[in-house]
Amino acid sequence: MESYDVAIVGAGHNGLVCAAYLLNAGYSVLLLEKRSVPGGAATTEEAMRSEAPGFKFNLCAIDHEFIHLGPVVEELKLQKYGLEYLFCDPVVFCPHPDGKYFLAHRSVEKTCAEIERFSPRDAQKYAEFTNFWQRVIGMMIPIFNAPPKSVIDMAGNYDWAKLQDLFSVIGPPDKTLDFVRTMFSSPRDILEEWFDSEFLKAPLARLASELGAPPSQKTISVGAIMMAMRHNPGMARPRGGTGALVQALLNLVKSKGGVVLTDQSVERILIDEGRAVGVRVANGQEYRVKRGVIANIDAKRVFLQLMENSEVDAADPKLRERLERRIVNNNESILKLDLAISEPLRFEHHNHRDEYLIGSVLIADSVNQIEVAHSDPTVGKIPDSDPSLYVVVPTMLDPSMAPEGKHTVWIEFFAPYQIAGAEGTGMKGTGWTDELKNKVADRLIDKLAEYAPNVKSAIIARRVESPPELSERTGFLKGNHYHIDMTLDQMVFFRPLPELANYKTPIEGLYLTGAGTHPGGSVSGMPGRNCARVFLHTQEPFGQKLKEAGNAVKSTVGAVFNL
Ligand SMILES: Cc1cc2nc3c(=O)[nH]c(=O)nc-3n(C[C@H](O)[C@H](O)[C@H](O)COP(=O)(O)OP(=O)(O)OC[C@H]3O[C@@H](n4cnc5c(N)ncnc54)[C@H](O)[C@@H]3O)c2cc1C
């Protein structure tokens, strides 16, 4: 029987980041991945090898912003392991039905100049709005990059610039209260407060709602950072696709002696006297650990699928019920459409320029359309009568991802996991069938063709993945790509539940990482890094705490005296 210090369930990017930090600290690590390809929702695959050979597709994540808010890339020296980020500029293009459009550059000034062509007032407001949310981002970075219950870690992350951001947002009592009110409000509320023009409000609502809820939902106004981040630190894609980030992490992990085994679905976490001592995979093979098991999957899957009920109950008699009933899932998932195309999309009605295709192209006609795009899935309806889309032509920025002169299109469409009235039918009982997913895909292409009419004749091949298929491939419960919803009640020290929020669990030696832990989903590596810090604290409590307290004091003193 083989034995390691740590076994990690799942080789998603967070599992790999966590492994890298543990290996750097001298621990032996085994990663067990259920798929034949590591990376989870961050892979790049030649997914249509027979119909479209040589075309590489990002099956899930494509645009990377959050990872640039943390130190993972630099600390792990991922460039040395083959990672190269290509920054997008422009970052967003959103054609509007009336002929106007929103073209956002990385530079706020250039973006304002574009907005000014249609609305001088909104252009000026956009600069102020972005400045505010960028200061909020500065204030939040130290919180993202620390375990949510570690005040020392968080405090140590505040340098002078971030302290300035913090005190510019929360200052005297009325200012602080106003900030709190903003955070309680919805994306729609704040967009109505700041702007007049629909051609601007609709794409901003679409991006804010990427958190997975309608723009009218209170307490997620913070979704405004999804646009602000595209200006600074910027939006980038690894050369070769998102999978190139995973490949760099694999290169690092393997070079440090880490072991990654694919096609190894963990079916049981082994518990002995209340302690995690190993895992068993589907073929019966067991792997023992000396220090711990770390799960890169969410708490529901860990405690409700990979453990005996009696073992969970012995650790916390209320936990199973709380996981089952307290964690919310609003039924929103993604239908993903990938196209291999013979020529780039052309936005004929909007004075086409190739630069439109560098960043994300949003089909977002109105805030109401975005509202329906997110509220319909909640009640089990497919919002395809007037679909809103997130479209990318990744080969414009990185032509290496397709045969010469050819392109790919990446389309994200929010859709229900469970279709209302179709319970128990179709794939996994969700109501989705091959026929239905293809019918919806046709509707999405029709909609895109209203703006880029050449899309239909350019298609060489297509791949449609419905929510239950996404769930089957990645393991996401109910197709939730953030593992659990990203609403305020499930963030920071509430993620996934207060008693599980610091990466530790009531089972000794069992830790959680990944999108279902703080600070949440998307490509950031932060849950992986934060979890590794907690693990290291647990192994070397005194030395680690002393080192970090020293760093925190040094950083705060440096910040205050501007050293
Ligand atoms: C269509 C789509 C588009 C997206 N677009 C973006 C984007 O543009 N930008 C962005 O930042 N984010 C995006 N996301 C979200 C982002 O991809 C995820 O939140 C993130 O990749 C999650 O990473 P993770 O490592 O935490 O978890 P995962 O990627 O879910 O990794 C978990 C791993 O565990 C494995 N696993 C599961 N069960 C077992 C088991 N029993 N045994 C062994 N292994 C197991 C899985 O196969 C997987 O490899 C998108 C997601 C989707 C679905």
Helix proportion: 25-40%
Domain tally: 3
Can you tell me the residue ranges where pLDDT is under 50 for at least 5 consecutive residues?
A: 559-563
Please report the first level of CATH classification, the CATH class of the largest domain.
Alpha Beta
CATH superfamily of the largest domain: FAD/NAD(P)-binding domain
Bound molecules: flavin-adenine dinucleotide
The tally of helices reads 20
Structural class estimated from helices and strands: alpha/beta
- What would the CATH topology of the largest domain be? FAD/NAD(P)-binding domain
Shape: globular
CATH architecture assignment name of the largest domain: 3-Layer(bba) Sandwich
Percent in strands: 15-25%
> Mean of the pLDDT scores?
95
Return Rg in Å.
23 Å
Total beta strand runs: 18
Task: Summarize the biggest pleated sheet.
Answer: 7 strands, mixed
